[in-house]
Sequence to fold (1090 residues):
Amino acid sequence: MSENMEVNYSDRVRRLFEKYGISLFDKLEIRHKRGGIIRGVILPRPEIGDPDVLILKLDNGYNIGLHIENISSVRIIGHLHSSPLVEVRKQYIKGDKPPVYFLGTGGTIASRIDYKTGAVYPFFTAEEIYSMVPELEDLAFIKAENLLNIFSEDMRQSYWSMIAERVAKIFEREAPKGIVIAHGTDTMGYTAAALAFAVRQLPGPIILVGAQRSSDRPSSDSALNVIAATITALKAPFGESVVVMHGSVSDTFCLVHRGVKVRKCHTSRRDAFRSINDIPLARIDFPDKFNLLNKKIIPRKNDGIILEKDFDSKVALVKFFPGMTEEIIDFLLDKGIHGIVLEGTGLGHVAKTLIKALERAHENEVPVVMTSQCIWGRINMNVYRRGRELLKAGVIPGEDMLPETAFVKLSWVLGKGLGYKEVKRLMLTNIVYEINPRSENRSYPPLWGC
Amino acid sequence: MKIDYEELGLKVGLEIHQMLDTRGKLFCDCPTSLRTDNPHFTFLRKLRPTRSELGEMDPAALFEFKKGVSYRYECYEDGVCLVEMDEEPPHDLNREALEVALMIALMLNSVPVDELQVMRKIVIDGSNTTGFQRTALLALGGSINVSGKVIPIQTICLEEDAARRVGEESSKNEVIYRLDRMCIPLIEIATAPVISSPEEAEKVAYKIGQLLRITGRVKRGLGTIRQDLNISIRGGARIEIKGVQELGLISKIVEYEVLRQVRLLRIRDELVKRGVSKGSIREEFIDVTHVFKNTRSKIARRVINKGGIALCVKLPGFVGLLGYELQPGRRLGTEFSDRAKYWANVGGIFHSDELPAYGITEEEVERLKEILSCSKNDAFILIFERREKAIKALKAVVKRAREALDGVPEETRGANPDGTTRFLRPMPGKARMYPETDIKPIRISEELIEKVRAKLPEPPEKKYEKFVKKYKLSEEMARKMIESYHLDLFERIVEELNVSPSIVASFLENTLVNLKREGVPVYNLSDETIYEVFRLLSENTIAKEALPTVVEYLAKNPGISPKKAIIDLGLRSLSKEEVMEIIEKIIKDNMPVIKERRERALGLIMGLVMRRVRGRVDGKIVSELVKKKLGQFLSESERV
Fold:
């Protein structure tokens, strides 16, 4: 038992431990002040809650909290020996199954909890993936490595570069049918977009996959998402960066979304990911049906991968709000920001109070790209006078790009170290279908069947 | 035969699950009502077993998963939210539920824990969308006094109810659940296994049920309280019987389970005497399809025509024992068949003790015995099925047959409506419980306990005194009322409405019982409906004589309001003037008789009047009015 596991208990409790020589996981017999004897194993305390309360696991499996003041005496009657984490020894043989490569970056899908300590361990060897999703044995030969172990919200530009580089190398050296990247769902869309720009002309798809319910629960969506991701790696005709997640609240199908056109639109539902201003690339019906839905794809290519992995981290994504003043823009410019993506209202507007600051950005050759907080739809800055004023102030209209995608793209374009004009040109040029010239009726989801 | 339960070492423990009557569910704000209207939408899920910390999968769980079952969940937009759908993390634990549960714990003198930790109890039969039931141990110890015997309470838990299984669609391998019930707060009270007779088991359940109802904070009606029974006898095994909904069935279930265990032990002894050992029961299955080439048995013909086979296994030394009755109508063969159905999903099996029958002839049976080389003590099991299913089924049979040599196999059983039980599933492995990391532990402070203690309901003795002294109930009725299922409703009506307590008590305890006996579906009557009827009575909108008629009508026409019922039945109360008019008319119409019989005509007139006004005006008033009017008439006619 390490010192720090007791850390969430109060000094009073620790003194009690010392007095009786108690260690965590000792089995105790405690006489309660109000009568009665309680037997249970003493567990580490979660961070939250009253540090004077001891956590005991009773024989019936329940955990209860017992306040130190209600304890009249303690006796140690045994010790629960910590069982080592599962060792998966089964050897898997390649056979004739096509290879799929798995990369771990952390998040709900790639971790498992040690129920005794509550600690979370990375969980990402091929054996562990097979043992979690035995169906994969019939589908593919899996190789896996754990690249990162971070929370989704700690993802940043330098990690995008690292993943992009690794992906390119794996395709070149291992020639898998596709690469499946386990990723926390919160920023999965950003990473998917980043990889879409950074590694192109791919021999197979890069598939980001995650879970909205953790893999330690029987109802987790992770297994089916992983199966769908593997099927995509094997059967997809495209070599794009995509996100594969549940298509509905049922465990019946998954959707493949284009990385630059996908957004997490719900905090908790398993079908949280939606294609925006585009339709999904494909749909996978279980057990193994792959249906291409979108004709506009970037096919698999074997002409050598283009790797442009650098991202400029001095880019900001700023959401406009009523009453906003120029201070925020000025602050960013003062701090030496390299580029700004604005999430404006409607067709691409912000308040008059910001115009001066935006002109200043333009004079400093700091590109400002306009996107819309409507999420769905295209920017058009010619309709209203404010739009035209903003264009005059040098704002670049971001077409039908998602704010997040525009942010990633600007960071990538700036990473190339190009001049302002070239940056502006690239921001207005479609590279990986992040800009669609046509807005199709069906790309706005009819939500209530009306 | 009189059974000496003490001699047998009978031990029964009860686990009582009672729904709490809270506004919202345990982890979300959905209403806690059960529904019968058509669901608004459904969704489909699969569950997969998670590996326990020891790297093992629960065999029963694994088996369910391998069957490839999907679960279809039926939902109401206004009754189910993303929490029940497992599409949103649980909200904070419902404080109202916590307080009601604490109240019950205090009434049982149980000691609350200082910090409540919600756990996940893994259950992957689809009855929880999450694959686990959320449950928390709230209090330890305590006791309840039943007829002078102290029954210790072991634990009191607060947990969410499971989804309601409403059917299955076997062609799609789907089990259908409805989510209206899921997540309704339940309190689970477990007694120590000290109950030593069937009657005592029922009494304890009754007493705990009464205590729960006294709080006035628990749900009532069919399916709102469920008992699990743990039953064992010396030399037998601990058998868990799940989901007993009817209190009156408990003693019978215990009685029948004891019978089953005693007889299984007898079978074991007989098998040992016959020299049967586990090793002598072999997994040797023989294809006997050819025997049934020209059979008259419909089932055999149907299965074989579809490419199925007839498969047999010999059970040495089992002759006569397969047909041995364990419980009324249930034999050892039935237990074998239950297992085959569970593990292989087959329709059923035939055992030699019941043959020839079902179109299988004497000659066919003899051929089978010959092929299996059965001696006179040997029995056999026969099944018609697709090959791999037949093999699975017979494997399950052989396993169960070997267990007959141990006596009573440990298992979870379900109660049948007649008090017998059937195999439900293997005893689950040690409950796999993990902390629910989505819910913060809850500190149960002294302040909270004191706040709840201050609101504890009156103890029964106090109530009794009040009922006799203040409400003027007879001692017998007061006693009856204290024990009554309707206790809280009685108190509410009496306290809030201006009606005679004895009328209310007599209605709840006598009228309702009589109506039920006559087959009136009184379970359709909600507390609210009954309350409303008494409100109408207190406003003199109806007469007390009309109560049975109105209530019968309401029970038979659920959904109709009491006001509407009165209109439908034409039972609106009559005003004094209206009654007077009727009496005058009747007196006029019967003048000759009245003149002849004079005062003695009172009974006749009264009868005629009552026929017209029964249920629409108090009989006492009618009698007064008739007497007065008749007197008037007679004195007038004298004068003439």
Notes: The first helix of chain B runs from residue 5 to 8. The longest strand of chain B covers residues 149-160. Chain B has four domains: 5-232, 272-424, 458-569, 576-639. Residues 147 and 155 of chain B are 21 Å apart (CA to CA).
